[in-house]
Amino acid sequence: MPRKLNASAVDVVAAPKRRVPPKPKSLKDRIVSIVTESSIMLGAPTIKKKLVHDFGLVNSKAFNTNVNKALKELADDGDRKDFGKCGGSYHAGPTSAAYLAHVAKEQEAGQLEAYKREGRVLCYGIKAKAKTTKDRILFILAKATTLVGVPTIKKRLVEEYGLTESKAFNTNVNKALAALSSEQRADFGKVGGSYHAGDASAAYIQHFQGKASAAADEANAQKYMDQGCIQCCHCGEWCPGDCEVGEDSIARGSKYKCFACDKVFWTWISDGYTTGHEVEYKYSAGQLRISTFQLVAMFDFLKRPTLEDELFKMRFTAKSLVRNSKKCEKNQIAQKLKLKQAIEKGNMEGAKIYAQNAIREKTQALSYLQLSSRIDAVAARVQTAISMGNLKSNMSGVVKGMNVVMDSMNVEKISKTMDQFERQFEDLDVRAAYMEGAMNSTTAGATPADQVDDLIQMVADENGLVIAGQLDSAGAVGSHVPVAAPAAAQATDDLTARLAALRKA
Q1: Which terms does the UniProt entry file under GO BP (predicted)?
Q2: Residue 244 bridge partners (DSSP)
């Protein structure tokens, strides 16, 4: 009788570990492993993407060159049985699943051509008679990978079914498309003036994804444009306003230097300074197709600038001043940081220099901002004058009258015309004063003084600021009346005395 063995007496032999094959190190071996694992044929872009994803390679110019070189050498090596090329795609040899699937597809395509010659088509995997225009259109849309328009549908009907394009043919196709559009079909759909094979088709999915991507890109671009950024035309990066280095040679745009690619580009006045261009603005470059009227307007030096032109220049100047003010504020922050570092190092002389620089940048920023505010105020007055369109019509008649009486040199007529001219300006001053008073009263009524004071006090308390006694001295908004300076009054008296002396002479 055999002796029983205890479990403790049996030598337990560990199972051998499964050996994991090492990853290939050479580029050729990596490419062969990628096409071997794939069940379909792969193109060069897919192979490069898998190399980056699976092996952690960096996509660069040298990487693309090496991959293309390795693919060419593998394809030219006729002794290899584990690599092959068909058209622009690659597979793991004639016995691979990818190559066999490709051969089967080619055979199916040949069978499909036979079905076409017999008047039948293979639509959705079902052999069906395709004798009606509707069925033929559905088959064309089922094969399409993009949205198809009416002209393309007619062209493919003529090419694939041997139809003759005529007036009756166009009428039948339009009727078939209208009938399909009116039906609630899962294998047919319409987007704008194009058609697809339903919401689950590759054409519709690609269109939807492209539309969503375009909307996202547009929203992203609008976000950068709202921040005052300009897109570089060389590398596509969005450059902030700090990248501006000056104006072009004819003052019709700005010059920028990209922070990413370090290349120079320009903005043009013709597109509102919103797009980067490789060259500075020129009349021939900004307007490639110039009509006769545009040429006349472009070189009409006798034409005087209008109020709208002056308003545009004022607003552009004010915007430039605000941009310069922001630059000074950033420089001030940088100088303060250097000041802090100098104090930490005990460099008091350098700290004084940085402090002076910070104060100078702050003063310059305030000066730019004040000047921009003054220009905005003048622009508002000009906008008011433009809005009051009746002033232009009234003044035009007066100016014409002045030209006539000046030519005649009739003193009485000149006096009457000048009186009328001054009366027009008095009317303008009265209207402007009335509008300003109405706007001030409306603003004061819409924002009660107690609510304004409460808001200021709340903000001060939140930030630990002390404003005791300052609100009472400030008064209400718009309540201060400007007082004429003594120097201005003295200058007026001097002018009056000179005018009296001239009259005596």
Answers
A1: vacuolar transport
A2: 256
Q: Under CATH, to which class is 133-205 assigned?
A: mainly alpha
- Asked if 35 and 84 touch (Cβ cutoff 8 Å), the reply is no
Domain boundaries, the chain: 27-115, 133-205, 228-281, 303-405+451-460
Integer distance in angstroms from the first to the last C-alpha of the chain? 157
Cα 48–chain centre separation: 30
Tell me if 27-115 shares its fold with 133-205: yes
Mean pLDDT by 10 residues, the chain (505 residues): 46 46 75 88 90 86 90 85 85 83 68 49 42 86 88 89 88 91 86 87 83 79 79 83 71 76 79 73 49 51 64 80 88 85 80 83 86 79 69 56 52 58 64 60 52 60 63 51 50 61 55
State how far the Cα of 322 lies from the Cα of 366, in Å rounded to an integer. 10
Tell me the two tokens of residue 410. 């009739």
Is pTM, for the whole model, over 0.70?
Answer: no
User: What does the DSSP assignment read for 3-21?
Assistant: PP--TTTSPPPPPPPPPPP
The whole-angstrom separation of Cα 354 and Cα 343 is 10
63 three-state secondary structure: helix
- 27-115 has CATH 1.20.120 classification: no
Let me know: does 457 contact 451? Beta carbons within 8 Å: no
Residue 351 CA to residue 65 CA, distance in Å, equals 53
